[in-house]
Automatic annotation (TrEMBL), chains A, B:
Family: Belongs to the glycosyl hydrolase 130 family.
Pfam families referenced in this protein's UniProt entry, alphabetically: Glyco_hydro_130
Coiled-coil residue windows: none
Upper lineage: Bacteria, Bacillati, Mycoplasmatota, Mollicutes, Acholeplasmatales
Presence of the UniProt keyword Chaperone in the record: no
Alphabetically ordered keywords of this record: Glycosyltransferase, Transferase
KW Glycosyltransferase (keyword) present: yes
The species this protein was found in: Acholeplasma hippikon
SUPFAM superfamilies: Arabinanase/levansucrase/invertase
GO molecular function: glycosyltransferase activity
Highest taxon in the source lineage: Bacteria
Protein name from the UniProt record: Domain of uncharacterized function (DUF377)
InterPro entries (UniProt xref): Glyco_hydro_beta-prop_sf, Mannoside_phosphorylase
Amino acid sequence: MRRAKQNPLITIKDIKPTHPSLKVDGVFNCGATKYNNQYILLLRIAESAISEDGYIKVPVLENKKLQIKLIDKNDKNLDFRDSRTIKNTESKVEYLTSLSHFRRAYSNDGIHFTVDKEPWIYPESEMESWGIEDPRVTHVLDKYLITYTAVSKHGVSVGLIETKDFISYERKGIILPVDNKDVSILPEKINGKYFMYHRPVPNDIGYPNMWSASSLDLTHWGEHKILLTVDENDWENGRIGGGAPSVKTNRGWLHIYHAANKDSVYKLGAFLTSLDDPTKILYKTSEPILSPFETYELHGFFGNVVFTCGIILESDEIKIYYGAADDKICLATISLDEIYQKLKPFRG
Amino acid sequence: MRRAKQNPLITIKDIKPTHPSLKVDGVFNCGATKYNNQYILLLRIAESAISEDGYIKVPVLENKKLQIKLIDKNDKNLDFRDSRTIKNTESKVEYLTSLSHFRRAYSNDGIHFTVDKEPWIYPESEMESWGIEDPRVTHVLDKYLITYTAVSKHGVSVGLIETKDFISYERKGIILPVDNKDVSILPEKINGKYFMYHRPVPNDIGYPNMWSASSLDLTHWGEHKILLTVDENDWENGRIGGGAPSVKTNRGWLHIYHAANKDSVYKLGAFLTSLDDPTKILYKTSEPILSPFETYELHGFFGNVVFTCGIILESDEIKIYYGAADDKICLATISLDEIYQKLKPFRG
């Protein structure tokens, strides 16, 4: 695994806020694909309101318009310890500190990117009133499918948007209800069905595990099955979830996933399924393939995080675009051979 | 609303345990339909292991076989206060105290039922290793669809089983991932799509609200939308969820749902949607139509509960089969006119 020496490729300094009262907290967790011979990243941009003494200002959408809520920093019924959220006494999230949207970034070499000055896709529906996050892009036939996390007071659900040209797009609704995220769709039908990986978070019983599901039309999903559980290794015993959409290799579907331990240190791993059945893991890395190490991964809006939503396979080499410390876009490359060497038979 | 004077219709005395080491804790929350001019109830039967001094015995399936786990009653890391569950220090459910399966009950008059002496559908898959619960039966064309709660250490998900004759049946897999339950499917296509109501329980953000979803084939579901939230009235501010499958009336689709307040007192309410669009509530009862009142509703395995999974509409009268205090089957009848009088315009 080699980190690009130009890392971080994109930082908050490269991003213009959407509104004078907002500042950019992070540009991270991007979808990645190629279109018209260019590299395209679909960036998650998180913005927060510039706070004033004694108050935190929280951006939310109400009736499709940006509103700024004033939250008293001394409110003893609220918990401000996590930089990403404000929780109530029951540990339920009452507010997110930032509101995320998506922008495009273009590059001819996969390293130097030009970023849109305006949002491309901004949260819109009631289910997106706290933002849209973590886009994954899958190229299926003549379409690019964007799966993303839709956040609101109702919870964390999964939306689907389609584009053919990265200019116009169409919202296809909520494809998985709360709480679910980390959805990536495989790029072609397998035995007549599309497949996805998803990561529900159960409330009463169970832990944040990875599941598979199938679809005939990409908007209606079923045949939900457990794929990978958190009780594997120390570095992945907190939560796991899909990363970038799987890529097709001679040896099977290769998937890069993320995993966090109980201290929320996020690392990347990989697994391989047969080309015939992406619902069963045959080989898996027992050690992470990328862990927070560089300063830009250890420190940031939320430190100790490497997290990918987008990879590109070219000439037996995988470009992994990843969010570092929840505020920067970075690149690491790894050969298929190097990943194959790290894969071990998985008892399933 | 008139309770049957024969209530309770079925109690644990009417149920033979499946195994000498088990006792029946409850017979409740039944699906209801008519088949071959008979009334059929699909009963949820909960069984627990007969415990011994100092230990609670917990029945679970392992490799499809019944296993009895011994749980030390003095284990200070476990919380035994809820009769239905054993929780760990993080309030996660570690065990259910009982394991549920389904049996059929038949009747010519809708009041006097003959109950199967053996299970009809017993938990089987990994997702059902802690039991199958709360079946709803919808008659669609030549099939009867059974939606049910599949419980395991992985969480609470929703399974689908089809039968044509209430003898043989076919498992159709998990149609909604964790945590979700209270699923009822509407009995016909509306504008080319099937519809269901479901009730996910989000973990980090949001509350147990009712949602709608659509399907073309009954096994793959999408277009998830919020239908009804818990922030309505005192008696329904804890959790709400679908009851029996909706019935078609001249005025629209009528649905009987359940709601609990924050003290877990379960009551029934009703709402009406247009026949064209079951995803928007037009009228709703602001007061419950049935509340725990009789001794058999106030006291039992889990008291203060009335909960329905099955109703039958005949001659402008609705038969509501309901679980009372999580251990008995009861019947109450109400005319459509009486429900209409209680319905109020819903601002939705």
